[in-house]
Specification:
By secondary structure, the chain is α/β, with parallel strands linked by helices. It folds into three domains: 66 residues, Histidine-containing Protein, Chain: A, CATH 3.30.1340; 66 residues, Histidine-containing Protein, Chain: A (2-Layer Sandwich), CATH 3.30.1340.30; 66 residues, Histidine-containing Protein, Chain: A. It contains six helices and ten strands. Strands 7, 8, 9 and 10 form a four-stranded mixed beta sheet that branches. A hairpin with a 2-residue loop joins strand 1 and strand 2. The longest helix has 14 residues.
């Protein structure tokens, strides 16, 4: 007597062996000997071929046929296709550490988990995933690995100011509360305040920035 898991393995092997069927986008589940086929194929003949292949396997009691025909020009929006495309784009992006993250897609909703070194990497991962066709929403559960120090943040603000003429970081004050940064003090122009805030976000471990800098 075959177990459901063995039956599932046999059906998947038969689909892979069948030359008229592209098995890559076909899923197989088995409950009490009843095989459910789901996923996508390119034409109706391929759908019939998948069903025939499953029926050839011994001990299959019944087949629930849920495969959909989708033409090559149709958008690829199945959950596994969305996940695959997100992982591909993460691999191409120099700003996203794909080896530190996991992607789950359920009914078009993407959940990102894992640990990164910088806050901007969590933002970039969410932005990149959001561009993929078929994504309905993103749950970003990426954690920032390191806890910042006041010297880390001050150094990044000073470096950011040094890269721009006529900016002075001396008027900016920094306070830390865990991974939260509070910026205060005075600057001469609005864009100086924006530079300080961006620099604080760039510090490792920062998860929240409160900007109380006064432009005067």
């Amino acid at each position: 007597m075959k177990s459901d898991s063995q039956l599932q393995h046999d059906v998947m092997s038969e689909l892979e062996w069948e030359p008229s069927v592209d098995h890559e986008d076909i899923g197989v589940s088995v409950t009490d000997g009843v095989v459910t086929l789901n996923g996508f194929v390119k034409n109706y003949a391929e759908k019939q071929g998948a069903e025939r292949a499953a029926r050839r396997v011994s001990r299959v009691k019944a087949i629930a046929q849920e495969i959909k025909v989708r033409f090559a020009s149709a958008p690829k929006t199945a959950d596994h296709e969305i996940a695959r495309r997100i992982l591909d784009v993460f691999t191409w992006s120099v700003l996203v550490p794909d080896d530190m993250m996991a992607v789950k897609v359920e009914n078009g909703w993407v959940t990102l988990t894992g640990t990164v070194d910088w806050h901007f990497q969590t933002q970039e991962a969410e932005k990149v995933a959001g561009r993929i066709n078929g994504v309905l929403g993103i749950i970003n559960r990426l954690a920032v690995r390191h806890r910042p120090t006041a010297s880390d943040i001050r150094k990044r603000i000073e470096d950011a100011f040094d890269r721009q003429a006529d900016l002075d970081a001396a008027g900016v004050t920094i306070a830390l509360d865990g991974n939260k940064v509070k910026l205060g003090g005075r600057v001469k122009a609005w864009h100086e305040r924006q530079v300080a805030e961006r620099a604080a976000w760039a510090a490792p471990g920062v998860t929240h920035v409160e900007d109380h800098i006064v432009v005067a």
